[in-house]
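Why do we care about 3D structure at all? Because function follows from shape, and shape follows, mostly, from sequence. That is the central idea of this module. The next example makes it concrete: a single protein chain, its amino acid sequence, and then its structure expressed as tokens.
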Amino acid sequence: MSDDITTMNIRIEGEVQGCGFRDFAVREGNARKLKGWVRNRADGSVEAVASGPTKIVEEFIARCMQGPGGARVTAVNLSPVPPPESLGFIRRASV
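And the structure:
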């Protein structure tokens, strides 16, 4: 098994606010024991940072591409970032 750790900033666009996306992301992130956070952005997107084993982060991104039942994801933008300092996967205040 690889010890590769990946940390990605994930911007999810589409109909992703008002549908439980942040709670969905917190559940998915914690179920995978990832470090990171999720928040709504003023432009209507959802932003998350996920850090953990590469394969697990890829699974989390795949789940974000689907989203919860009421979401309609139209785009997912990824960029590598430094790992978060916090432990666990949390919900942050909107920006």
